[in-house]
Amino acid sequence: MNYFFGINNNIFKSEIQIPTFKNKSLKPMNVKLFKCYPENKKWILKDISNTKINKYFYALKNENISNKEIYFLADDKIYQKFDGAKLDNFNSFTDTKPEFRSNLKIYINNGGFSSYQSEYPHSMIKKRGTILSSISSLANSDAEKNYIIIKNIFEKPIVEIFKAYLVNLKTKKIENSFEIKTNYTNCIEINKKLIKPEIFLATKEYLGIPIYVSLRNNYLSFEHTHPPHEYILSKDKFIKVSEIKKEINEIIN
């Protein structure tokens, strides 16, 4: 199962398109779109199927998107499974090979836009751990401004503050730290002086999906990050990543 998300703040706006068909067939299925958000230590569930624009797509405009919300497809059986205490695997519709894709468009007012995917797999919401992401691989030191959008979804309906760090592996120092929230689409700005190969984004309590956005001349570039082992070609890449995570955890602890 996949969840979907957007961003809506004073810098970025967004739109989301979610197909009702699988990638191996154009036949639309009878699935509904729901949104969920934490409130008073419970998950609130709402049917938002009125956002369907045709038999093939749901579309959420910026005014329908909140940083605290997540979106997903399901059928009416969800009412039998949903109890508000914990997110569950509510459907298998988006479990496809190749991967089921939605489209997330991020834009700025009176400026440019860029589109990419915004799937958040159900397998991630049960886990705690360390985000590890190379800053220089996706941020742009030639841009006017760089941001990291970090979406966290945790299975329980909690809103907790946790830390994100920019860690320098060469000097063994924390260059900057930020407070971000669980079950929220967070946005932090990166100083371009910190866009170096030795600097990594890291968290130590919760996972999430980092997305990098660079702005220049009122246009933007938007790129979804990949797990760090995908940048390493050697056979021991998982060992290498574990060693880097251990080293970073020692620095931020």
SSE map:
Blueprint: E1 2-4, E2 13-19, E3 32-39, E4 42-47, E5 52-54, E6 57-60, E7 70-74, H1 78-81, E8 103-107, E9 113-116, E10 119-121, E11 132-134, E12 145-152, E13 161-168, E14 173-181, E15 184-190, E16 199-203, E17 209-216, E18 219-224, H2 237-252
Antiparallel strand pairs: 1-10, 2-6, 2-8, 3-4, 3-7, 5-6, 8-9, 11-16, 12-15, 12-17, 13-14, 13-16, 17-18
Describe the overall structure.
By secondary structure, the chain is mainly beta. The protein folds into two domains: 2-122, no CATH class; 125-252. 8% of the residues lie in helices and 40% in strands. The strands form five sheets. The chain has a five-stranded antiparallel β-sheet, with no helix packed on it. The longest helix is centred in the last third of the chain and has 16 residues, at 237-252. The protein is globular and about 55 Å long. The protein starts with a strand and ends with a helix. 32% of the residues are buried. The model has no long low-confidence stretch (mean pLDDT 91).
User: What level of helicity do the residues show?
Assistant: under 10%
Largest sheet: 5 strands, antiparallel
How many beta strands in the DSSP annotation?
18
Integer average pLDDT: 91
| Number of separate helices | 2
Radius of gyration: 19 Å
Q: Hey, roughly how much beta strand do the residues contain?
A: 35-45%
SSE-based structural type: mainly beta
Low-confidence segments, given as residue ranges, are none
- The helix/strand series, from N terminus to C terminus, equals EEEEEEEHEEEEEEEEEEEH
Envelope shape: globular
Number of domains: 2
> What is the end-to-end distance?
34 Å
Strand order of the largest sheet: 5-6-2-8-9
